Amino acid sequence: xxxxxxxxxxxxxxxxxxxxxxxxxxxxxxxxxxxxxxxxxxxxxxxxxxxxxxxxxxxxxxxxxxxxxxxxxxxxxxxxxxxxxxxxxxxxxxxxxxxxxxxxxxxxxxxxxxxxxxxxxxxxxxxxxxxxxxxxxxxxxxxxxxxxxxxxxxxxxxxxxxxxxxxxxxxxxxxxxxxxxxxxxxxxxxxxxxxxxxxxxxxxxxxxxxxxxxxxxxxxxxxxxxxxxxxxxxxxxxxxxxxxxxxxxxxxxxxxxxxxxxxxxxxxxxxxxxxxxxxxxxxxxxxxxxxxxxxxxxxxxxxxxxxxxxxxxxxxxxxxxxxxxxxxxxxxxxxxxxxxxxxxxxxxxxxxxxxxxxxxxxxxxxxxxxxxxxxxxxxxxxxxxxxxxxxxxxxxxxxxxxxxxxxxxxxxxxxxxxxxxxxxxxxxxxxxxxxxxxxxxxxxxxxxxxxxxxxxxxxxxxxxxxxxxxxxxxxxxxxxxxxxxxxxxxxxxxxxxxxxx
Length: 501
Known about the structure:
- By secondary structure, this protein is α/β, with parallel strands linked by helices.
- The protein has two domains: about 10-130 and about 150-220, 3-Layer(aba) Sandwich (Aldehyde Dehydrogenase, Chain A, domain 1), CATH 3.40.605.10; about 260-445, 3-Layer(aba) Sandwich (Aldehyde Dehydrogenase, Chain A, domain 2), CATH 3.40.309.10.
- It is built from 13 helices and 22 strands.
- The chain has helices at about 45-65, 70-85, 85-100, 100-120, 160-170, 185-200, 215-220, 235-245, 270-280, 300-315, 335-350, 405-410, 425-435, and strands at about 10, 10-15, 15-20, 25-30, 35-45, 130, 140-145, 150-155, 175-180, 205-210, 225-230, 250-255, 260-265, 290-295, 350-355, 375, 395-400, 415, 420, 440-445, 460, 480-485.
- It has a seven-stranded mixed β-sheet, sandwiched between helices.
- A hairpin with a 2-residue loop joins strand 4 and strand 5.
- About 50% of the residues are buried.
- The mean pLDDT is about 95.
C-alpha cells in the first residue's frame, strides 16, 4: 500500500476498476498548509469519462435495486465500521489534503460514521405504508422505488461527511451513483468509496470521476443521470437548477449561508464568546454554517467585543496536524485572495477592523494559504460583509438595541441556513425559534454542530427546499409507488356511487 505521505496517482474509479481520463489529462491535489507538497495526481475527466461512469452505473443498477434492503444496510454498516477502525488515518489524510485541524477532521469522519450507522438501520424499517381502501376486498399500500442513476457533486470543506450524507442514503434506496468530488479533495473521496467497496458494495454501484467544473457539468447534463444532488455555491446552484429544470430532472441543492448569532444582554457572555469563536473560525470559517455575523445587544457590546477580539488574537495558526493549532489554512490561493478582498471591502464600507485582516506570511505559514482570523466592528446589516458569503475566517459584529432589531438583522440576508440566539430569557428563546428564518435554529449554541438524526438544509437562497439527513432523508433518494390489490373478483370503481358500499 502506498504511504499517504507520498503522492499517489489515480485514475477514475469506474465499474470497480481504475481508468485514466480519456484525454490523458491529469491534475494535482496539494496540501494547503504546504502548497509545494503534492498529495496526489488524478484523472482530469471530461464528458467521455462521465459517459463511461454512467454506463457502469446503469449496468449495476438492476442487480443492486434487486438486492434486499437489509443486505444493503449490512454493507453500509460494514463500511461505517471500517471507517471507525480507520478514523485516525482518514482524519490525518483529510488534514493533509484539505487543511482543517486534526480534531475537526476526526469530527468530519465521525459524522460519516454516524450517518452510516443511522442509514444502515433504515434497511429494516422505512419501506412503505399500508392504508385502508374505500372499497371492500381491496388492499392499498405504498413502496419505495429507486430513482435510478444519480449524480452527486460535493465540495471540499467536508470531504468525507458530505459525500456520506448523499451516497449512503442513495445506495440504501437502491440507486447507483456517479460521484464527482471537489477538485481540491479527490483522495479523501477515493478512500471513502474504496471503503464502501471493501465493505461489499458491488462494483459499479458507486463510480468516481475526478476533475473540475467540466466533469461536474457533464454529470449534471448527462441524460442517464436521473437526479442531481449538489452542495456548493448559490451561483453554481442556480446554473444546475436551470439545467435540471430544462431536462425535468430532480435536483437537490444545498447552497450558501450567511449565518448569525444573536447575543442578548441577558446571555451568558462567556459562553456566547466561546460559541462565536468556534462558530466563526472553526474550519477557518469554511463552513456553510459558519457564524459570520454576530448580532450583539449594545448593553453588552463592549464586553463581548473586547473578549472576542482578545480570544481571536490568541488563536494559533498552523498545519492542522499539530495538535496545538487552532486554525488551519484556507483551501487554495484563489480563496485566500477572495477573503482578503472582502477585508478591503469591509474597510471601504466603513466597518472597523478589530483583529486580523491580513494574509499570514511569517515563518512556515508562508508555505501555505493562511489568513489571520478577522473581526469587524461597527457593521450595519446592509454592508456587503454582512450580506455576502465570504467563506473564510471573517466575522462581523452588528450592534442592536432590541430583540426586534436583532431578529430583523438576523433575517436580513438572502440566505436561511442556520441562526442562533444566546439568551437566558425563555420568552426571547421561543420568539427566536418561531421568527428566525432558517432551516436550523440553535439556542445557546453557535450556528455549527448539526447532528445527522435531524434534517439539514435551509430556506430562501440556501437551497431549493430539499433536506439531507434526518428520518425523512430517503424521501429525497426514492420515488413513492402506490399499489392497489383488488381480490374481490369483480370490477369495483373507486369514487363511483353504487348501491353496495
